[in-house]
Amino acid sequence: MIVISAASGALGRLVVDNLRARTEVVAVVRDLGRAPEGVPARHGDYDDPASLRAAFDGASRLLLISSPELDPSRKTRQHLAAVAAAEAVGVGAIAFTSFLGAGTVATGMTEAYHATEQAILDSGLPYTMLRHPFYSDAFVPRISGGELTGSTGGRGLNTAFRSDLAEAAANVLVGEGHLGRAYDFTGPLWSHPEVAAALGVTYREVPDTGPGPMSWINGLVRAGALEQQTPDLERVLGRPAETVVSRLLGRRTP
Ligand SMILES: NC(=O)c1ccc[n+]([C@@H]2O[C@H](COP(=O)([O-])OP(=O)(O)OC[C@H]3O[C@@H](n4cnc5c(N)ncnc54)[C@H](OP(=O)(O)O)[C@@H]3O)[C@@H](O)[C@H]2O)c1
């Protein structure tokens, strides 16, 4: 039995959709009214350790989907409660949706992810770290009036779509040979000027709209911080990951 935590979220639903025809899957949600349809659901709240023990009981594999909590201390506490519950009930293996860099960087954006990876290693449970890049879904550029704008300085982005990351997670959960490994998942490198050229529109660099998460991420992109590439996602998928250009061509209105 494969148990998916935070299964009511966008990523969790995609993982459940991918797995339901392949194996026995249980969705763990903090609100049973938001559970994905068609699979058994259990209540499990990262702020309620007892609920997590009951929710994870009997799992041959657990996918621990990271909490959306922004405060690193609380996020760490939630994840560590989940790892402790997994250890207490003896799940067969744990896969964790971590973040790129979390293996080595214990501060800033990856603080909670690093602490969680360490707790998983300390637990002695068989594990797979699924280190995610930023999700492409939030970065697909808008085209308006025959032009594409961006504030990324033309540098590369290694984002990947949730749908591919969900399929990769599902492959790890039902597959063999993934235990004791950390995957650094990156999507096909893309840039705003390249996407504009592929779509036959002009590219115009525009100033950031101001402080906020996107502006912060644009700064990271301009510094080249999202240009790391690995073959891990393509290997686990067994095919190339979806590109931003193909998503845009699929969605573009005439
Ligand atoms: N790499 C990236 O670019 C990126 C972007 C966004 C998020 N993330 C991370 O990836 C995770 C999955 O992404 P997503 O797109 O699926 O996020 P999402 O759609 O916001 O889903 C978040 C999930 O976490 C659940 N949750 C919130 N608080 C919880 C708690 N106390 N106990 C148990 N579950 C709780 C939510 O439950 P409800 O349905 O009850 O609210 C929901 O199922 C996020 O939580 C976040 O850590 C990564």
UniProtKB/TrEMBL annotation:
Q: What is its EC number?
A: 1.6.5.2
Keywords on this record? Oxidoreductase
- Can the keyword Transit peptide be found in this entry's annotation? no
Task: Using the record's annotation, list all stretches that form the NAD(P)-binding domain.
Answer: 7-173
Broad class of enzyme this protein falls into = oxidoreductase
Q: Name one GO molecular function term.
A: NAD(P)H dehydrogenase (quinone) activity
Name the record gives this protein: NAD(P)H dehydrogenase (Quinone)
